[in-house]
Design a protein that fits this description.
- The complex is a heterodimer of chains A (159) and B (779).
- Chain A folds into two domains: 77 residues, Beta-grasp domain (Ubiquitin-like (UB roll)), CATH 3.10.20.30; 72 residues, DNA polymerase, domain 1, CATH 1.10.150.120.
- Chain A has five helices and five strands; from the N terminus they run ββαβββαααα.
- Chain A has a five-stranded mixed β-sheet with strand order 2-1-5-3-4, with helices on both faces.
- In chain A, helix 2 crosses helix 5.
- Chain A is globular, with a radius of gyration of 16 Å.
- In chain A, 56% of the residues are buried.
- The radius of gyration of chain B is 28 Å and the shape is globular.
- In chain B, 28% of the residues lie in helices and 25% in strands.
- Chain B has 19 helices and 28 strands.
- Chain B has 779 residues and is of the alpha+beta class.
- The N and C termini of chain B lie far apart (58 Å).
- Chain B has three domains: 157 residues, Aldehyde Oxidoreductase, domain 4, CATH 3.30.365.10; 199 residues, Aldehyde Oxidoreductase, domain 3; 330 residues, Aldehyde Oxidoreductase, domain 4.
- Chain B has a seven-stranded mixed β-sheet, with helices on both faces. Chain B has a five-stranded mixed β-sheet with strand order 7-15-14-13-8, with helices on both faces. In chain B, strands 18-26-27-28 form a four-stranded mixed β-sheet, with helices on both faces.
- Classes of the chains: A alpha+beta (159), B alpha+beta (779).
- Chains A and B meet through helix 2, helix 3, helix 4 and helix 5 of A and helix 1 and helix 17 of B.
Chain lengths: 159, 779
């Protein structure tokens, strides 16, 4: 029941075997070794496992690996370029948007997708975007402030 | 000492790794030949375990082994050792790593299946045949203590585990002197852990070295090692327990768990590395919770609103076992009388066994429960007298001039409880000013025009932090001039590595970038206790400070010998010892470290001890008491009962702050946890002890859309009880948050209903409660 899967992960073409019952999260973590994607609830509520699939934020625990055949996947490991944090990652550090770091990859991927679609979201849009991501540590405020800081910078650079 | 880092909101050194997906949590650990474990768990809250047939599981593809407790007979036997024995617990009550004859809660582990991967292990676990005889279950702590209650454990004649008592002063005199007396009954509920990372364990055994290695998602790796060594009759030196990156702890991860023992036993038996990762449904039935306390208390007070005394009793839900002794209920009694100066108290707390998941502290332990009761009582007194809530607090607070204030109570170690410092009234005044209490009624009227009921909430708190006896630290300069700090204190996201490095960097004038922190690993430091009770900044923080001072003296001594300059004329600067005012004349710490590492045949200068290193176990000279006042506004939709916390202001004093950004993060997260306790988190069971809330669709956690921004203001009164002047802050946000929110809801209802508004005596409060209250019902 294992099939070869070909897909693009963080810009690199990859091919690996995936059992029929394996979800995308386990595939990324345990087959490809990309352990930055975290499994928090495995029933689609906490959002820790969020990755970007063909441009859309997706819960990797609710998608079978095989459904990613041919897809373009982005994970937290792909956000920093040439050793430089993305503006959102840097803003997370500057605004204390993470404590234990477990929900952080999912938050980053959800907000990265948002900021591509809506370069200058307001607070309520940001909170709505992460309404499916649970953080037990921060109270969300630092996360919202970090995303707002990037949004403000985006607005400044486009105006 | 120049304070370059101490007191500054330094960005966290932990973040760089975590932000790029390079954290290393237990489930990220892989080992050659590693196998995966799934547990067979009790489907009943109480049952006799008659037989377990592992054969069907063992026959399944990919299954390597399956075990019950009997399979480990040559390795260990009996129940797990109690973590915190207490004289009132006559007979320790802990479970076996895998149950033997009786199952006492839904989720208790019965057997384990070991397979090539987790999916195979989980599938095979379903094939294990378990023969059970269902027994009557007790699912409510109050019912458990009724004379006709079924026994939670066969063979025990009572479900009363212990009865705890605290009293001081002359309670009868206090009540006789009072102008008024009131009695109220309260039901408090705390829910579970819900760290975003569930628990997990990796165990491996090296037969040639006879060495057992455990990675566990724990707040207390040293306690795991101690207990496991006891259980296995092994020397601690043959066991290493490490907590790698841990995705949140919040209390329940400080327990020592059956799965940690079962994985160790399995690894010893099989000689292969084993991994178990708790899934979220297991988390709801296998990780300790806190749940219920029920209280009936009578308060005595004067016509001017001064509270004189408190008496009554409570019932605490212990769950099916007491792995953590009676720490959680005992903590409750120490929390009285809170920030209020009382003449007398006399309070009893009965600890009831139930056929539910065991309980142990969740963020704040029993402090939030007692804060809820005390703050509700104060609000009740205010309503009874027609005084303002702040007036009753002002009349009853411990005053700054009374510090250190002996409450009359006795701490767990037998010492007299004494609050060390602070001004509770200043905190209250400040929070009222910051939230704009003076013009609240204007906002309330404006909100009504939008069809919303606005309420203003208020709560004060005092919190014992930094309990001893110690967390130690050792500091060592490497031959490359880097500083390595090792401590037993494990971290779960609190930013310990940053905070400890800040302290050392200032004393030693070393750049933060040249400091690494190794924590929570028995292989790196000899002793450690547990990251609980907001204690690490006080204990480990001061140990780092003291060790850094020692190391500094040693470096100065070495340099004074080498440079032939008095130590008083030397200073540390940028990783070197230099002659004051002569920057060119210096010796880098790296050179001193190399020299003190020794060379064969060459004596060390001046008979110095080898190694540019120092260790300290700072022993606190007394508990430090943080305190504060919170205020919030809630907005209620009268149609749906939907209740939103729209503003929340914290005024808090945790002494000197090492890193205000981190302190604020701790407080914010804590407040949100408390709002969850006020409005959302509800761990429900049916009458047979079956859990009813085992997904995040059923058990609600605070989410981004419902949570307000938290405005924080600090007062910094240095604690006189440690060199750094610090107090803990990890639980500060949670403790007063639920009573603050509930007080605001009641205030909103009073605006609508006047004197007919209910006095709210429970949390969490649901939208249904609110609608019923608005309709004139009981909630």
């Amino acid at each position: 029941m294992t099939a070869m899967l070909t897909l693009t992960v963080n810009g690199r073409d990859m091919s690996a075997a995936a059992p029929a019952n394996m979800h995308l999260g386990d595939f990324l973590r345990h087959v490809l070794g990309l352990t930055g994607t975290h499994m928090g609830c495995e029933h689609g509520v906490c959002g820790s496992c969020t990755v970007i699939v063909d441009g859309q934020p997706v819960r990797a625990c609710l998608m079978l690996a095989r459904q990613a055949q041919g897809a373009r996947i982005e994970t937290v490991e792909g956000l920093a370029q040439d050793g430089r944090l993305s503006p959102l990652q840097a803003a997370f550090r500057d605004h204390h948007a993470l404590q234990c770091g477990f929900c952080t990859p999912g938050m980053l991927m959800t907000l990265t997708a948002l900021l591509r679609d809506v370069p200058n979201p307001g607070e309520s849009e940001i909170r709505a975007a992460i309404s499916g991501n649970i953080c037990r540590c921060t109270g969300y405020q630092g996360i919202v402030e970090a995303a707002l800081a990037v949004a403000t910078r985006n607005e400044a650079s486009t105006s | 000492m120049s304070a370059r880092y101490f007191g500054a909101s330094v960005a966290r050194s932990e973040d760089a790794r975590l932000l790029i997906g390079q954290g290393r949590y237990v489930d990220d650990i892989d080992m050659p030949g590693m196998l995966h474990v799934a547990f067979v768990r009790s489907p009943m809250a109480h049952a006799r375990l008659k037989a377990v047939d592992l054969a069907p599981a063992r026959a399944m593809p990919g299954v390597v082994a399956a075990y019950t407790m009997e399979d480990f007979a040559g390795l260990a036997e009996g129940p797990m050792p109690p973590m915190a024995p207490h004289p009132l617990i006559k007979q320790p009550l802990t479970c076996h790593p895998l149950a033997r004859h009786e199952l006492c809660y839904v989720g208790e582990a019965i057997a384990m299946v070991v397979a090539q991967d987790r999916a195979l292990a989980e599938t095979a676990a379903l094939a294990v045949m378990v023969d059970l005889e269902e027994l009557p279950a007790v699912a409510d702590a109050r019912a458990a203590l009724q004379p006709d209650a079924a026994p939670v454990h066969l063979g025990r004649d009572s479900n009363l585990l212990a009865s705890l008592h605290t009293q001081f002063g002359d309670i009868d005199a206090a009540f006789e002197a009072a102008d008024h007396r009131l009695t109220e009954t309260f039901a408090t509920h705390r829910g579970g852990c819900h760290a975003m990372e569930c628990r997990g364990v990796v165990a491996s055994y090296d037969q040639r070295e006879d060495h057992l290695s455990i990675y566990t998602s724990s707040q207390a790796p040293f306690m795991v090692r101690r207990q496991l060594a006891n259980y296995l009759s092994r020397d601690e030196q043959t066991i290493r327990v490490a907590a790698p990156d841990v995705g949140g702890g919040f209390g329940p991860k400080a327990n020592v768990y059956p799965e940690e023992f079962a994985l160790a036993l399995g690894a010893l038996k099989l000689g292969r590395p084993l991994k178990w990762i708790e899934d979220r449904q297991e988390h709801f039935v296998a990780t300790n919770q806190q749940r219920d306390q029920f209280w009936t208390l009578e308060v005595a007070f004067t016509a001017s609103g001064r509270i004189l005394g408190l008496k009554g009793h409570g019932i605490h839900d212990s769950g099916a076992y007491a792995p953590y002794g009676v720490i959680l209920p005992a903590n409750a009694l120490v929390c009285f009388p809170g920030p209020y100066a009382m003449q007398a108290i006399d309070i009893r707390l009965d600890v009831a066994l139930t056929n539910l998941v065991p309980t142990s502290p969740v963020r704040g332990a029993s402090r939030p429960n007692v804060a809820f009761i005390l703050e509700r009582i104060v609000d009740k007194v205010a309503r009874h007298l027609g005084h303002s809530r702040e007036a009753v607090r002002a009349a009853s607070f411990v005053r700054a001039a009374q510090m250190p204030y002996f409450t009359g109570g006795v701490a767990r170690d037998g010492s007299r409880v004494s609050y060390d410092s602070g001004d509770y009234q200043v905190a209250l005044d400040m929070v009222l000013e910051k939230i704009g209490a003076a013009d609240f009624t204007t906002r309330q009227r404006d909100a009504l025009k939008r069809g919303k009921l606005l309420g203003l909430g208020l709560a004060a708190c005092v919190e014992d932090t930094g309990i001893g006896p110690f967390e130690g630290a050792s500091l060592r300069v490497t031959p490359r001039g880097k500083l390595v700090i090792a401590t037993g204190a494990a971290a779960q996201g609190q930013g310990h590595a940053t905070m400890l490095a800040q302290i050392a960097a200032d004393v030693l004038s070393i750049d933060m970038a040249d400091i690494t922190v190794e924590a929570g690993d028995t292989g790196r430091f000899p002793l450690g206790l547990s990251t609980v009770g907001s204690r690490i900044a006080v204990t480990a923080g001061n140990s780092v400070h003291v060790a850094a001072q020692k190391l500094r003296s040693k470096a100065l001594h070495f340099a004074s010998l080498k440079l032939e300059v008095g130590a008083d004329d030397l200073e540390l600067s940028e990783g070197a010892v230099q002659v004051k005012g002569v920057p060119g004349l210096k010796i880098p710490l790296a050179d001193i470290a190399r020299a003190l590492a020794g060379t064969t045949g060459v004596p060390l200068p001046g008979g110095m001890e080898p190694d540019l290193a120092a260790t300290a176990y700072f022993e606190s000279s007394g508990v430090t008491f943080a305190y504060g006042s919170n205020a919030c506004e809630v907005e209620i939709d009268t149609e749906t009962g939907d209740t939103r916390v729209t503003r929340y202001v914290v005024v808090h004093d945790c002494g000197r702050m090492i890193n205000p950004m981190i302190v604020d993060g701790q407080i914010r997260g804590g407040v949100i946890h408390g709002i969850g306790n006020a409005l959302f988190e509800r761990m429900l069971h049916d009458e047979q002890g079956q859990p009813l809330t085992t997904t995040y669709g059923e058990y609600l956690l605070p989410m981004a859309c419902e949570m307000p921004n938290i405005e924080i203001h600090h007062i910094e009164t240095p604690s006189p009880r440690n060199p750094l002047g610090v107090k803990g802050a990890g639980e500060a946000g949670t403790i007063p948050a639920a009573p603050c929110v509930i007080s605001a809801i009641e205030n909103a209802l009073e605006f609508q209903l006047g004197k007919a508004a209910p006095f709210i005596t429970h949390h969490p409060v649901s939208p249904l409660d609110v609608v019923e209250w608005l309709d004139g019902g009981q909630g």
